[in-house]
């Protein structure tokens, strides 16, 4: 027991400092570089993958088309509607691809950092989506028409209409962008911290000596398991962000509330 207490006192778990990086040059940090790199990767993949399109697709074209089908059909078409969805496909596809690459950076050797674990990046994307879907709503319904469309569902009894209006306006103009940003940020932050804790903990136990070295392989294996789980979460969070963007756009331009 004394050995465990002593080890616990000596062990320093990773904390929020894990997400702070010194500038590489000027004010440019690693997360900034990764954001630019992810953009280059997304553009390069779609540019090179669509250079030689064929009626009978090869393996590369088939994979790219299968990937494209996710934001096109399960997000844009299903959530925005078959009449209006096509003009929003580039946005939904871009969001899904960009966030996915940035999330997956967390499990890429050497890089090993999810860009979206820095709140500024998901917040910027959420603000962009926020402005975009409200702009689409104002353009479709006009200023007064959109405010009425967003604030008051049809059929609401008069005596509770003021309360419903307040709730709906807060949801549409405040809570939606915040939840959109915080969801992916929290998942990437927590996931990266857990994986780092498993790696640091396994290393500490391995070199601690004595009986403490026994659980080190188990902690290391658990870290690998967490990595695979986090990879799934990274894909899901990219999907959810893009899907909710499509949901908000669909709600903004729909004829019904």
From TrEMBL:
Gene Ontology terms: cellular component: plasma membrane; proton-transporting ATP synthase complex
InterPro entries from the UniProt entry: ATP_synth_F0_asu, ATP_synth_F0_asu_bact/mt, F0_ATP_A_sf
Highest taxon of source: Bacteria
Places the protein is found: Cell membrane; Membrane
Membrane spanning stretches: 32-49, 88-113, 119-138, 150-174, 180-200, 205-229, 235-253
One MF annotation (Gene Ontology) recorded for this entry: proton-transporting ATP synthase activity, rotational mechanism
Coiled-coil segments: none
UniProt keyword annotations, A-Z: ATP synthesis, Cell membrane, CF(0), Hydrogen ion transport, Ion transport, Membrane, Transmembrane, Transmembrane helix, Transport
Broad class of where this protein is predominantly found: membrane
Membrane topology: Multi-pass membrane protein
Similarity remark: Belongs to the ATPase A chain family.
NCBIfam families in the cross-refs: ATP_synt_6_or_A
Protein's job: Key component of the proton channel; it plays a direct role in the translocation of protons across the membrane.
Protein name per its UniProtKB record: ATP synthase subunit a
Species for this entry: Pseudonocardia ammonioxydans
